Structures are given as C-alpha cells and as structure tokens.
Amino acid sequence: xxxxxxxxxxxxxxxxxxxxxxxxxxxxxxxxxxxxxxxxxxxxxxxxxxxxxxxxxxxxxxxxxxxxxxxxxxxxxxxxxxxxxxxxxxxxxxxxxxxxxxxxxxxxxxxxxxxxxxxxxxxxxxxxxxxxxx
Length: 134
Hints:
This protein has 134 residues and is an all-alpha fold. 86% of the residues lie in helices and 0% in strands. It contains five helices and no strands. Helix 1 (2-27) runs antiparallel to helix 4 (101-109), helix 1 runs antiparallel to helix 5 and helix 2 (35-66) runs antiparallel to helix 3 (70-94).
C-alpha cells in the first residue's frame, strides 16, 4: 500500500511541476514566433505531460512491484527517456544541429517537461527505496 501511495505521489508531483514549466514557458517567456505557434507549443506540452506522467507512473509502479530495486527503476527511467532523446536528436539532425532561440522555447514547452516528469518520479521513488532499505 505504501508503494502505491509513493508512486501516486511521485506522479502527481511530477505532473504539477511539469505543467507549471509548460505554463511558465508559454506565458512568461517572450514569443519569438507567431502567437499561434506559441499556443500550439503549450497545447503539445500539456497533452504530452498528461500522457507521459501516468505512463511513467505505470512503468515505475510495475518495475517497483515486480523487482523493487534501484537498478530496476534506473532501467525504467532510461527506457522512458530514450524516446524523448531520440526525437530531440532527430530534430537536431533535420535542422543540421542549429539551435535558435525559438526552438529553445519549444524545447521548454515539450521536451523538458516530459524529461522532468521521468526524472522527478525516479528521484522520489529512489528515495523511497533507500528509506525502506535503511
């Protein structure tokens, strides 16, 4: 029961932080592109966060329930971060590794919140495993 509550708490906290980052990147940073593109980045970031936070909760929950080791959640974190990194690398290859300021806002709206959900959940659940083992 305690494991389930920790997984849910990690998921909710990571969702709130990632959603706050999407909001801040969309409303507080200046828009270097047209307003529609900035608004669409916010929509993609929100939908991505709404999809990825529960997915990470499920993957981490299953790996903790089945194996209950730090290595298992580390492997789960790498598996969850791999698509984000691959999409980012593919985009950099298409743009010939030129990063402009407007792409930075898009990364803050989409890629960083998704990675942040995984990293925060991994940190919280790793802390739970260490407290339980101690």
